[in-house]
């Protein structure tokens, strides 16, 4: 497998990358696009008339996202780290949006747009022409062509991945649904790639699901998704409420649609669908014995092969359960309860939904249940726009409806850690950022929680069907915005930490004077701490959205061949650290509030961090790539306990892990293959700014005495900075479920700024040549 040419046409706003697509592809006028940000709800709009363009001028941030060149001036060249940090901040602060947050494209996964486009197609509610044009452009730009991943013409699971059936069949279908001709040379190439991989029949479960409801495949090819699992009593170890929220929220509408065996009404008469039936397979469509291909999958897609147990369960479901035992009354009950849960999800998020996989599926469920004119369908259709983002390569679907809270909380922390937060010229920036966080904190629990039998105040992690098994949220923050409405452990922690940092910041000349007003009152900070206290697992660690509710053995039922570790919540050093370090800070501010519980939380959590370290000194990261990311967090946890290079063998081992892998140019670069394989894999393009910054932060937190090595890394960060203070986009930064990568373009600003400032605080701000 090749990993060549990362960073080229990688889907980010870099002015210098060379797109691989034919330049004469139709495109819209980039100067007519505007990002609207309505209290963190972000949507892109294409202005039709010159008058509109005059009324709504393009911003620096718009231009940056669109790769148009910001026109920001060159700054005096930085000689010292803090100056470089400040140049970085000068650039980055210009990208802050009116409500106070930062935004960015949040692309990477290549399986999201297809679900949206298929849903809009079968419901007869297409996107506007400019949106369609830009989506086509994006998908072609992400195609593996030229020297990108062997140039075989396919698409992978994510923008940097090798071609596989899931990406290729679904993106090919999407382009066709958007009107692209099958005779376009790139489409021919894509088909050749698809046939080499065995055709769409070799696709994973999710591909078969989408193509069946579109009417290109037949439902017999889809392994069962029985909604009756939702009727299991809560104590049953495999009951869906115990699964990771993303799995159960996808399984929910998927099961509803599967149960109805719903198919696009015009499938048999629509000429496009009839053509797709000929284009996606290596054999004539009419001859396909669908049921025989339920388990067919190409090796390129089969990252996580189905277990023997799941194969057995599927076999029994198909041969015994469905034909003989799945009585109509049971089906009806299962569908009714699923529908209720779908409605609860929609109600809790005003139809935004958890993520862009379940969102279009829920829209289709509403369409099936309530018809095309229903409010639910119309609202869903509007909400789809929250996921769409226009970048320089075209229009993509983001992994969530944005990264608002997360990047904003980190931006504040970077300003604090560098000491730049005390400078008057950044006060407005900081205040606006905290005002944004204030606006986005959840102030109410999920619908039904307060009337449920598990209600308590302060809340616990107990859940119930009465409120759709949702985790408590009063006082929490989500990853993106308030509309989406899901508590995330580390998002709550990082936002709370950022708020406390700002609200306790004192004047360097007069430490009795705080610099900022109280934006979020004490009571609400305490609610946030209450939420964090509900997030701990028995192991001491924290997970992402909820504490772990089911056994890891549920992984035996993981039906989505393309992802690993998806069935339940796991222990993560990143989330654990965020909670530990924030509770530590909170406890210093309010030493009497739930002090014993906080102490116990921190002790057991840090103990877990210690035991989670690998023999070679590293920690495996699940949300950023990979060991460089997790190591930064784990060492921060240890530092809160005073555990550093000087007094801890463990910390020394962690530092050696990094120093042994430092590149000759002083930086670090780790490939996404680390996430897939669980072993350190060097980045094919060498050092990466973001990962170098992560390691600098880690080593400074660990109080590594190896100043020379760290200074070399700092030098690399400074050399890669552009004269206007910017850093350019390099390889992809984030990951989920081990196999799918996702972009965090603001990391290239946030973490270098923070690393430069932290280095200077630790070692002094001497000139670096
Ligand atoms: C995210 C993005 C943020 C991320 C962090 C906060 C960084 C992490 O520390 C905790 C987990 C979380 C919230 C997270 C979980 C999974 C998400 C939502 C994503 C990686 C973004 C996209 C992904 C989601 C699962 C994509 C849809 C795909 C499915 C398989 C349903």
Structure description:
This protein has 769 residues and is mainly alpha-helical. It is 43% helix and 4% strand. It has 26 helices and 8 strands. The strands form 4 sheets. It has a two-stranded antiparallel ribbon with strand order 1-2. It is globular. It starts with 32 loop residues before the first strand and ends in a 6-residue tail after the last helix. Mean pLDDT is 95; it is low at 1-9 and 13-22. Lanosterol (LAN) is lined by residues 246, 250, 355, 357, 399-400, 406, 479, 488, 490-491, 544, 563, 574-575, 623, 736-737, 742.
Report helical residue fraction: 40-55%
Radius of gyration: 25 Å
How many extended strands?
A: 8
Query: In terms of per-residue confidence, which ranges show pLDDT below 50 for 5 or more consecutive residues?
Result: 1-9, 13-22
Small-molecule components bound: lanosterol
- The main sheet orders its strands as 1-2
Tertiary shape: globular
Strand fraction band? Answer: under 5%
Average pLDDT rating: 95
Count of separate DSSP helical elements: 26
Span from first to last CA? Answer: 39 Å
Sheet with the most strands, sense and barrel status: 2 strands, antiparallel
| Estimated structural class | mainly alpha
Protein name: Terpene cyclase/mutase family member
Domain Squalene cyclase C-terminal: 406-760
Biased composition (Basic and acidic residues): 22-32
Pfam families: SQHop_cyclase_C, SQHop_cyclase_N
């Amino acid at each position: 497998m090749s990993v060549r040419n990362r960073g080229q046409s990688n889907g980010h706003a870099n002015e210098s990358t060379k797109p691989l697509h034919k330049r004469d592809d139709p495109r819209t006028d980039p100067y007519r696009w505007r990002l609207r940000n309505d209290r963190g709800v972000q949507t892109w709009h294409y202005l039709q008339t010159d008058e509109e363009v005059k009324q709504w001028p393009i911003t620096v941030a718009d231009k940056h996202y669109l790769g148009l060149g910001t026109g920001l001036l060159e700054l005096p060249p930085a000689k010292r780290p803090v100056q470089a940090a400040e140049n970085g901040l000068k650039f980055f602060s210009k990208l802050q949006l009116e409500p106070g947050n930062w935004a960015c494209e949040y692309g990477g996964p290549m399986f999201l747009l297809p679900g949206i486009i298929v849903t809009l197609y079968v419901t007869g509610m297409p996107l506007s022409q400019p949106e369609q044009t830009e989506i086509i452009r994006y998908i072609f730009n992400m195609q593996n062509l030229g020297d990108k991943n062997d140039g075989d013409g396919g698409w992978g699971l994510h923008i940097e991945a090798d071609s596989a059936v899931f990406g290729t069949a679904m993106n090919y279908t999407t382009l066709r649904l958007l009107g692209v001709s099958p005779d376009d040379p790139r489409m021919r190439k894509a088909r050749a790639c698809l046939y080499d991989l065995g055709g769409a029949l070799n696709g994973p479960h999710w591909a078969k699901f989408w193509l069946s409801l579109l009417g290109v495949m037949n439902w017999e090819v889809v392994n069962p998704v029985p909604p009756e699992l939702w009727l299991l009593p809560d104590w049953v170890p495999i009951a869906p409420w115990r699964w990771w929220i993303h799995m159960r929220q996808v399984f929910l509408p998927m099961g509803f649609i599967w149960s109805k065996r719903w198919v696009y009404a015009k499938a048999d008469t629509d000429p496009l669908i009839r053509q797709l039936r000929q284009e996606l397979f290596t054999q004539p469509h009419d001859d396909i014995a669908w049921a025989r291909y339920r388990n067919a999958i190409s090796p390129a897609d089969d990252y996580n092969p189905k277990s023997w147990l799941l194969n057995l369960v599927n076999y029994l479901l198909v041969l015994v359960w469905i034909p003989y035992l799945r009585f109509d009354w049971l089906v009806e009950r299962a569908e009714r309860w699923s529908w209720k849960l779908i409605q609860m999800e929609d109600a809790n998020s005003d139809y935004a939904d958890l993520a862009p996989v379940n969102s279009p599926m829920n829209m289709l469920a509403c369409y099936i249940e309530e018809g095309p004119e229903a409010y639910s369908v119309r609202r869903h259709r509007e909400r789809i726009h929250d996921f769409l983002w226009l970048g320089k390569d075209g229009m993509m679907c983001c992994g969530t409806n944005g990264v608002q809270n997360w990047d904003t909380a980190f931006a504040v922390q970077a300003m604090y850690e560098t000491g730049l937060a005390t400078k008057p010229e950044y006060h407005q920036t900081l205040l606006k950022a905290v005002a944004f966080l204030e606006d986005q904190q959840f102030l109410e629990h999920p619908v039904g929680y307060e009337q449920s039998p598990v209600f308590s105040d302060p809340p616990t992690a107990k859940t119930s069907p009465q409120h759709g098994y949702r985790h408590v949220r009063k006082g929490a923050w989500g990853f993106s915005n308030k509309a989406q409405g899901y508590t995330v452990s580390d998002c709550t922690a990082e936002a709370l930490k950022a708020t406390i940092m700002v609200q306790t910041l004192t004047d360097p000349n007069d430490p009795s004077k705080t610099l900022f007003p109280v934006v979020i009152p004490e009571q609400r900070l305490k609610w946030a701490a209450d939420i964090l206290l509900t997030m701990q697992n028995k192991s001491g660690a924290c997970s992402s959205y909820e504490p772990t509710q089911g056994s890891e053995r549920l992984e035996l039922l993981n039906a989505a061949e393309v992802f690993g570790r998806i069935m339940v919540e796991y222990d993560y050093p990143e989330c654990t650290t965020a909670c530990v370090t924030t509770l530590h800070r909170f406890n210093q501010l309010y030493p009497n509030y739930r002090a014993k519980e906080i102490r116990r939380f921190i002790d057991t959590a840090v103990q877990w961090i210690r035991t989670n370290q690998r023999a070679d000194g590293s920690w495996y990261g699940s949300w950023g790539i990979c060991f460089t990311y997790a190591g930064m967090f784990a060492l921060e946890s240890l530092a809160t306990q005073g555990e550093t290079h000087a007094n801890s063998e463990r910390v020394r081992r962690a530092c050696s892990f990094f120093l042994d892998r430092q590149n000759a140019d002083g930086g670090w670069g780790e490939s996404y293959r680390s996430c897939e394989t669980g072993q350190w894999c060097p980045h094919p393009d060498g050092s990466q700014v973001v990962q170098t910054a992560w390691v600098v932060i880690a080593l400074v937190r660990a109080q590594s005495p190896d100043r020379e090595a760290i200074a070399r890394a700092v030098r690399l960060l400074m050399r890669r900075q552009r004269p206007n203070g910017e850093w350019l986009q390099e390889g992809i930064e984030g990951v989920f479920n081990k196999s799918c990568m996702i972009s965090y373009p603001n990391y290239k600003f946030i973490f270098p700024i923070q690393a430069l400032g932290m280095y200077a605080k630790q070692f002094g701000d001497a000139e670096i040549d």
